[in-house]
């Protein structure tokens, strides 16, 4: 008989015992009057009002402050395709972060299918219960189509956090790193290691934020993306057309030759010799977790600013800096979608929290900084109104 994978004395398992969240009532239920107001017969009047004017659901149900955290379990937090049931602890954790940092209620929805059509149909059917959809840990390239189709079909915000949350925080960090080094984003030569969900979104976000696309070089496992590659389709083919203006070819070392910035979102290891080929005084964001593409101590021998995805090193690029405030702002503005302008506004707000106190070890706020989510929410809500995507 095999031994159990659970150690009851392990503080991790003790913390997760019984789950990390529960549903509680926001109204009293201690009298007959309470029952008649919260449920029948009083609830019928609210139902009739919403039937006549559906937008009233934002005010008179939880939809105005609640999102669904949806996954198929195919790309879970460095664990890979572990399925929907095993993904549930991560989705619960995400929901707790929503509540703690953004005051947003969130419900984990783990779907027992990895078929694109079935996922889209399931989320569309669930959507009336929520004010937004946070897609989570869905593998590329399916995640691109799922997000696109849901964004087109629904009149509530749809946000794939593995793509856009990472991208927003990367842009914020790069803004501050460039400011610290008295550099302009438009002058930076950037190499991106990884062309999956995060790599695609980071590249597009940097371009939206002011980086020159012709000075971005993206690598996948086969080397530099460019017009010389005849094996590219979909989003990779789009990146090949958008980036690599000087037609570089070869591996990651070729992409890094003379680069000012390395952004690692691949999980693959990058040799020190390749990092040594970067321009002096550069920037490395090695974001693979738990093992960065370049160890921070190694990167620090060759560049001026280093960030990782880990909490035990300075400059943690953590999605929790973005998604609670993004959804809080989108919900507050009654946004129907999340635009590039809203994402850039979120990045600017994150960067602004620590803009007056930058050091090489502090280019982004702490994930626990209470100033972040309110600043992001305000900026995102304002951008939603400016972009005319509010109900």
Write a structural description.
(S)-malate binds at residues 289, 318. Its EC number is 1.1.1.38. A divalent metal cation binds at residues 136-137, 162. By secondary structure, this protein is an alpha/beta fold. The protein folds into two domains: 11-156, Malic enzyme, N-terminal domain (Rossmann fold); 161-390, 3-Layer(aba) Sandwich (Rossmann fold), CATH 3.40.50.720. Helix content is 42%, strand content 12%. It has helices at residues 11-16, 32-38, 42-52, 57-60, 84-102, 116-126, 142-153, 161-180, 197-209, 234-242, 252-256, 272-276, 296-300, 323-332, 340-353, 372-386; strands spanning 66-71, 105-110, 132-135, 158-160, 190-193, 216-220, 223-224, 261-264, 282-286, 303-308. Strands 7-6-5-8-9-10 form a six-stranded mixed β-sheet. Strands 2-1-3-4 form a four-stranded parallel β-sheet, with helices on both faces. Strand 6 and strand 7 form a beta hairpin. Helix 5 (84-102) crosses helix 14 (323-332), helix 6 (116-126) packs parallel to helix 7 and helix 14 (323-332) packs across helix 16. The termini are far apart. The mean pLDDT is 96.
